[in-house]
Amino acid sequence: MRVTRNRFVRFSLASLVVLLVGCSTKDTFEQPVPVPEIDASVEFKRIWTMSVGKGHDDQFLHLAPLYAGDVIYAASADGLLVAVEPGNGKALWQRRSKDRIFAGFGGDGNQLYYITRDAELVALSRETSEELWRASLPTEGLAAPQSNGSLVVAQTTDGRVIGFDAANGERLWQYDGQVPVLSMRTAAAPLVGGDIVIASFANGRVIALTADAGQPVWQYEVGQPQGRTELERLVDIGGQPLVLESAIMVAGYQGKLALVDIRSGQEIWSRRASSFYSPSIGGGSIFLAAANGDIIAYRGSDRRELWVQDRLSWRQVTRPVASGDYVVTGDYEGYLHALSREDGALQGQLKFDSDGIRVPVQVIEDGNLLVYGNGGRMAVYSLKPKK
């Protein structure tokens, strides 16, 4: 592990090809480091595991499970939909849909939402999985639809943000955002509050819209396109902003990590960074997966760089999440890695899914870890000191 301070890394544009539309998750033009050999001091203890259809079915999708506190909802690209208990993985219901699924699940107190390959937004009952309505979209969406209970918002790959009535699927408004000629196949889900919707775009901007009419309120520039080629000008935002009370934290590729006032769009602070994913926080620190695969920790109070773990470089790591004394991430070969939250040292490792891991690990009840692999394996683990 290498510890550095006040560093901004310029990453090779060639590595972006892995994230462009139509490319395989295992294509890369930067040589990933080998799986690190470590002296493990912590182990992943499996609580339960199950198979969710064919998972992403060899497509570059981001079908993250929805953890709703008392239930986990998950979907596969080939149309298997399941609801399970977080504690034991017991199925509450299971349904085989005729749809090929591109994005989901999103949800609210009563309903679940997903987007099909045929560009349809579908609403289901959380309780029974019964289909309630479906509505057409102008083009495909890769981000999970989001809802506040009365409004459902879907964002399409061509930059359109569309609000629907959650009760019946009626289209209420549409905002047409600008997207560059070339962008990454990412999935930044919108944030939907009671009176404001926050959407992230491939042009490096975050825009706040009124929830009732989709009218712009403010915009913030996370990255500014620079250079002569379209590759050099990539500034995509690939992760849903993180809400922290009255502010959001957001990161972008070839841009910055920033904290922004949620009401006004005014920048509270920022520092240079380059990431495909949003940051996470834990124990007063901010954790970020840099675009080259380094995991970086910043002190939350002053954003001072605390440590950098570079033994996972170019392994296409997922967004790191903090759980207890550890930070956990997955990678393109399907390994889970547990890092020390204090100094970033690699302390645990598990081969989970040979098809890889693309969606971030989620922390659920009792600090356990919900993992969903590209091949459809879903499991819950706890982290325990190795005896």
The DSSP helix count reads 0
Poorly predicted regions are 1-28
What's the mean pLDDT score?
A: 91
The CA-CA distance between the termini, in Å, is 24 Å
Largest sheet: 4 strands, antiparallel
Reported CATH architecture of the largest domain: 7 Propeller
Please list the strands of the largest sheet in the order they lie side by side.
1-32-31-30
Find the structural class using helix and strand composition: mainly beta
Indicate the CATH class of the largest domain. Mainly Beta
Rounded to the nearest angstrom, the radius of gyration is 20 Å
Helix content: under 10%
Please indicate the percent range of residues in DSSP E strands (runs of 2 or more): 35-45%
CATH topology of the largest domain, by name, is: Methylamine Dehydrogenase, Chain H
Number of separate structural domains: 2
Question: CATH homologous superfamily of the largest domain?
Answer: YVTN repeat-like/Quinoprotein amine dehydrogenase
Shape annotation: globular
**How many extended strands?**
32
Can I get a quick summary?
This protein has strands spanning 42-51, 66-67, 72-75, 80-84, 91-96, 101-107, 111-116, 120-125, 131-136, 146-147, 151-155, 160-165, 171-176, 191-192, 196-200, 205-210, 216-221, 242-244, 247-251, 255-261, 267-273, 280-282, 285-289, 295-299, 305-309, 321-323, 326-330, 335-340, 346-351, 362-363, 369-372, 377-385.
Task: Please provide a written account of the structure.
This protein is an all-beta fold and 387 residues long. The protein folds into 2 domains: 35-57 and 280-318 and 320-387, YVTN repeat-like/Quinoprotein amine dehydrogenase (Methylamine Dehydrogenase, Chain H, 7 Propeller); 99-276, YVTN repeat-like/Quinoprotein amine dehydrogenase (Methylamine Dehydrogenase, Chain H). The chain is 0% helix and 43% strand. It has a 4-stranded antiparallel beta sheet, with no helix packed on it. A 4-stranded antiparallel beta sheet has the order 2-3-4-5, with no helix packed on it. A 4-stranded antiparallel beta sheet has the order 6-7-8-9, with no helix packed on it. Strand 23 (285-289) and strand 24 form a beta hairpin. The radius of gyration is 20 Å and the shape is globular. The relative contact order is 0.16. The model is unreliable at 1-28 (pLDDT under 50). Keywords: Cell outer membrane, Lipoprotein, Membrane, Palmitate, Signal. InterPro entries: BamB, PQQ_b-propeller_rpt, PQQ_rpt_dom, Quinoprotein_ADH-like_sf, WD40/YVTN_repeat-like_dom_sf. It comes from Marinobacter excellens LAMA 842.
